[in-house]
Specification:
The structure holds three protein chains of three kinds.
Chain A lengths: L12 H15 L16 E6 L4 H13 L3 E6 L11 H10 L4 E6 L4 H7 L6 E7 L5 H15 L11 E5 L6 H12 L3 E5 L15 E3 L2 H4 L5 E4 L5 H4 L6 H8 L3 H4 L7 E3 L12 H4 L6 H20 L11 H4 L2 H4 L1
Helix pairs in contact in A: 1-5, 1-12, 2-12, 5-6, 5-12
Chain B lengths: L13 E4 L1 H18 L6 E6 L2 H17 L5 E4 L30 E9 L3 H13 L4 E9 L11 E5 L6 E6 L1 H4 L3 E6 H6 L16
Parallel strand pairs in B: 2-3, 2-4, 4-5, 5-6
Antiparallel strand pairs in B: 1-8, 7-8
Chain C lengths: L3 E8 L4 E7 L2 E6 L8 E4 L4 E4 L1 E6 L12 H10 L2 E6 L10 H14 L3 E4 L15 H6 L6 E2 L9 H10 L6 E4 L12 E2 L2 H6 L3 E2 L1 H18 L3 E3 L5 H12 L4 E5 L1 H5 L21 H13 L4 E2 L28 H10 L6 H16 L16 E11 L18 E11 L2 E5 L2 E2 L7
Parallel strand pairs in C: 1-4, 1-5, 6-7, 7-8, 9-10, 10-13, 11-12, 13-14, 14-15
Antiparallel strand pairs in C: 1-2, 2-3, 5-16, 16-17, 17-18, 18-19
The chains are: A alpha/beta, B alpha/beta, C alpha/beta.
């Protein structure tokens, strides 16, 4: 594995499975009375959030604390350069404070890549969502959730599982991270959205594209609903909220079109009545709450794998798996 | 890098226990446990990954026969509690499985293949304390090779094997290695010989 | 004045000849010249081109002297082989009055390294609402003939029409920065495969092409002259080609970086590649090279856009757009056009000196290298190889996308009206002409 987690495109199939399997093992922790491991004792993890995100931040914080890391929350709202300290100075400050890892959420696509590629700080950079680019740990927890339902067991991938991702793909970092990761794990991904909410050049992405949700439903094992912001309506991405939910919203009637085993996922926060009705959101097939729980396990796994061992300039890709013959099997 | 020529060339590994020895040791320890734990009523076996798990499984089979009932068996992965995590890249985790009845108030017997520095057992004790509160914890090992670095001792020892730090002890079990044996050889032999300690290199129990 | 005898130099890449420069003009040209000169220059292996003319330079003064001044900008120009540059109007204050353009013009005169021809803003404050006093700027000492809101597009069709019409009175030209504003709101890079993957706001080619299409029709309708700044797409080339075929008075420029770099570089999220118009695709690069070769694109213009380090040492979205280019332009043109066989040195002289001078109506530049002409000359060593080292630049800024790149060629000497501004690759002690 690389030293940073900026994009799921950087994860090989083995990397991804190692993370999922580790998360599976760490998930047992939540059932114990002492939900804490000493693994990252003395390591400092900074949560650098340039954008409000209670969910992701809390999830990372729980994960860090369960691994006994020293957690520093560094909230920096607003555009860095125009409104004060630059990203570079912030990074240099964190470096001076001895941050072993920086979990960064930023409104600008590429900000984590910029940190990881710079010499501003030496710790691992974990992307907790950058602009409309990527949100790798969300994709990992999605894959983890899908695997638990559709192909449970350590070492298992998602070969042949059909995942439909519905909604504002154009602005979705969740969709981008998922298309890389899920295809790496062997799943077949279909994006469903009005043409206005799909990026130019999507025909070259490793996925299918459909404008018709109803046609896709019967051929779906996992349906992932993306949040649609009401503001998009004003930019003419779609005519009205009503029309959007009629054509692309998930409701009870549509849920009945899904195969028996299929799950409905949502990264949250849900906009009920827009992309999903209460009937679907509250049904046992909806995994939204389970995804939150899985998020902690997956983030623990990422933190452990990036920070738990020795830190090399850039860890040799397979060292973590070849040094122990048991794990290599 | 050239290797300085030393008077004593590294020795190839030689076998100190064979399959029969190991089977007899497991049987003897099972009897000792029943005797000392007064019927082993509240015993829970926890095997430490990797070979400790296989040994614990064998020990359980014998114990079941001796005690006439099913002894609870679990596995323990102590990776997250190790004190040498930062010396190597992050390791993959093994499965920790605590028996359904838990360990609170039980006599937990940790099972491992080789007792050496004691650091693995220290980590296992830490892990245990996060999982529950046993009545007591005991330790069973196949081989005690000495050189302790912590105040830890085993309650049940298959074989005391005095070794030098130059030597490596290798436990092979049919479950993972194709055969049962315990070998001792020079640590350097593995490094210098193309036919390393064994065809399948397993953890040579270097000082941790 | 110091006189120079340059021996065995290849004028426009032709057979070796000697050039005697004295009293600000080419005194003698021929083989085996016997004249005495103050300084002899061995021209063996060097190409002599008329002093280069840049239609598109941001000198930043007044207002952003932390990025560039007229002095450092003209020094950079001289090191790049330029003898005249057009200074864009987006300064602080904006060059939209006779006062500001005269100030810039005077600073250029004082620098002595390169002639500075100010460009006037088309609209007041570059806001696209109200015509600036175009006539006053023309009538000033600066004698402005090129007008541009560069950095912003004159997107109002009526304003654009009026500007095109109005400048006819003094043979002016409107240089349009073609960017439809509504289609490029929040745009960060070329819209295409890469922008989709990177999640950066897309800048569609059509936003450039739609404006160019409108403008050539407007120019034809009112019978005026139009110049299109920094063409960056294959579609733009097609529209300009079509307009020229119609016989309309349309000219166009391309930047060196659009001849070499593509949007694949943005994958690094390094803002040094952030520029307006954005780096496009390999297919666009190919079309631009072909268009420059066949003359559809008239000129190479640098769009030299210096920015201080802090404006690039940040995340992509907040970084400033632009690249410095004066000191690397000729090398990039050699690599992309000459070494590829698309253009010979005569063609380079045409696209980088003759035609840009003609578009800007500069009478003293872009002249042939012949006896009696003002001695504006660049000696270029095309065999030189070296990695681009921004620390050796004369420009005050370092935002070059070519850092560490192996670009061919180097300017050996530049002469402005007979005075050396650059000799042996180094800036002359002080600029010459006062």
């Amino acid at each position: 594995m690389k030293r940073h987690l900026v994009s799921t495109a950087d994860l090989s199939r083995d990397d991804a499975l190692l993370i999922l399997d580790t998360a599976e093992e760490l998930a047992h922790l939540s059932g114990r009375s002492v939900k804490k491991l000493p693994t990252l004792r003395g390591r400092t993890v900074v949560n650098l959030f340039f954008e409000d995100s209670t969910r992701t931040k809390t999830s990372f914080e729980v994960a860090e604390k369960r691994l006994s890391a020293d957690v520093i929350n560094f909230s920096a709202k607003g555009s860095s350069v125009s409104k004060g300290e630059s990203l570079k100075d912030t990074a240099l400050t964190l470096q001076a404070m001895g941050a072993d890892a920086v979990v960064i959420r930023h409104h600008a696509s590429g900000a984590p890549a910029r940190l990881a590629g710079s010499d501003w700080l030496h710790g691992s950079v974990i992307n907790a969502g950058d602009g409309t680019h990527e949100h790798p740990t969300q994709a990992l927890l999605d894959a983890f959730t899908i695997r638990r339902h559709l192909n449970p067991g350590t070492g298992h991938d998602l070969a042949g599982r059909r995942v439909a991702i519905v909604g504002d793909v154009l602005h979705s970092r969740v969709a981008r991270s998922n298309v890389h990761l899920l295809t790496t794990l062997g799943a077949e991904v279909t994006f469903v959205a009005p043409p206005t909410l799909l990026p130019i050049g999507i025909e070259n992405w490793p996925c299918q594209v459909s404008y018709d949700l109803d046609a896709v439903l019967p051929k779906t094992d996992a349906l992932m609903m993306l949040r649609v912001q009401r503001e998009r309506m004003n930019a003419a991405f779609f005519p009205t909220e009503r029309e959007y939910s009629r054509r692309y919203g998930m409701n009870g009637i549509r849920m009945a079109q899904l195969p028996e085993h299929a799950i409905v996922m949502h990264p949250g926060p849900m906009v009920r009545g827009m992309e999903i009705t209460a009937e679907v959101a509250d049904s046992p097939r909806c995994t939204a709450v389970e995804q939150v729980a899985n998020g902690v396990s997956v983030r623990m796994a990422v933190l452990y794998l990036l920070l738990g061992g020795a830190v090399f300039a850039d860890a040799p890709a397979d060292a973590s798996r070849t040094d122990s013959p048991e794990a290599a099997k | 890098m050239t290797t300085p020529i030393s008077a004593s060339a590294p020795r190839p590994p030689h076998q100190v226990l064979d399959a029969g020895d190991i089977t007899r040791i497991v049987t003897r320890i099972a009897h000792e446990i029943v005797e000392r734990a007064k019927g082993a009523d509240d015993v829970v076996l926890l095997g430490i990954h990797t070979r400790g798990v296989h040994l614990a499984r064998r020990l359980q089979a014998r114990l079941n026969q001796v005690a006439g009932r099913e002894i609870p068996l679990g596995t323990l992965d102590i990776t997250m509690y190790r004190d040498d995590l930062r010396l190597k890249p992050a390791r993959a985790l093994e499965h920790t499985e605590i028996p359904a009845e838990g360990i609170d108030g039980k006599l937990v017997i940790l099972v491992d293949d080789v007792l050496f520095s004691g650091r693995t057992i220290r980590a296992a004790l830490d892990a245990l304390s996060d999982i529950g509160r046993p009545r007591a914890v005991q330790l069973a090992v196949l081989v005690d090779r000495g050189h302790r670095e912590l105040p830890i001792r085993a309650d049940y020892v298959g074989k005391n094997l005095p070794t030098s730090l130059r030597e490596a002890v290798q436990v092979q079990l049919a479950d993972t290695d194709g055969r049962d044996a315990v070998l001792v050889g020079d640590r350097d032999y593995a490094a210098r010989s193309s036919q390393a300690l064994a065809a399948q290199p397993s953890d040579p129990h270097l000082p941790e | 004045m110091t006189s120079y005898l340059i021996r065995n130099v290849q004028i426009l890449g032709g057979a070796p000849q000697d050039i005697l420069i004295a009293d600000g003009v080419f005194r003698e040209i021929g083989t085996g010249l016997t004249a005495e000169a103050d300084i002899d220059i061995d021209g063996h292996g060097l190409i002599a081109l008329p002093g280069l003319v840049d239609l598109h330079t941001h000198l930043r003064e007044p207002g952003r002297e932390d990025a560039e001044t007229v002095l450092t900008g003209t020094q950079a120009a001289a090191k790049g082989g330029y003898t005249a540059v057009h200074a864009m109007a987006n300064t602080f204050p904006v060059a939209d009055t006779a006062g500001v353009v005269e100030q810039v013009w005077r600073l250029g005169q004082e620098s002595g390294y390169c002639d500075v021809q100010p460009v006037g803003a088309v609209t007041v404050g570059l806001e696209g609402k109200k015509l600036a006093e175009l006539g006053a700027m023309h009538d000033s000492a600066a004698g402005v003939r090129v007008f541009s809101d560069d950095g912003k597009c004159v997107d109002d069709a009526v304003i654009m029409r009026r500007a095109l019409e109005y400048v006819k009175a003094f043979d002016g030209v409107v240089a349009q920065h073609a960017q439809e504003p509504r289609l490029t709101e929040g745009a960060q890079m070329n819209e295409g495969q890469v922008s989709g993957e990177l999640g950066l706001g897309g800048w569609p080619a059509v936003a450039e092409e739609a404006i160019i299409a409108r403008d050539v029709l407007l120019a034809a309708h009112v019978g005026s002259r139009l110049h299109v700044c920094h063409l960056s797409t294959a579609g733009s080339v097609e529209i300009v080609r079509w307009a020229k075929a119609k016989g309309w008075d349309v000219t166009a420029e391309v930047t060196p970086h659009h001849l070499l770099l593509t949007d694949e570089l943005v994958r690094s999220y390094d803002p040094v590649y952030k520029v307006n118009p954005p780096l496009r695709t390999a297919a666009d690069v190919e079309a631009l090279r072909a268009a420059l070769a066949d003359g559809t694109i008239d000129a190479v213009a640098t769009d030299h856009a210096p920015h201080p380090a802090e404006d690039k040492d940040c995340e992509w979205a907040v970084a400033a757009m632009g690249m410095v280019g004066l000191e690397t332009a000729l090398s990039v043109v050699q690599q992309t056009m000459v070494d590829t066989g698309l253009l010979n040195w005569e063609g380079v002289a045409d696209r980088m000196s003759h035609r840009p001078a003609r578009i800007g109506r500069l009478t003293g530049h872009g002249r042939p290298v012949s006896v009696g002409e003002p001695a504006n000359l660049v000696l270029f060593d095309p065999a030189y190889r070296g990695l681009v080292d921004p620390d050796s630049f004369a420009t005050r800024s370092r935002n070059t996308p070519y850092r560490g790149l192996d670009l061919p060629g180097r300017v050996h000497a530049t002469f402005l009206r007979g005075t050396a501004t650059v000799l042996a690759g180094e800036l002359a002690e002080q600029g010459g002409l006062k």
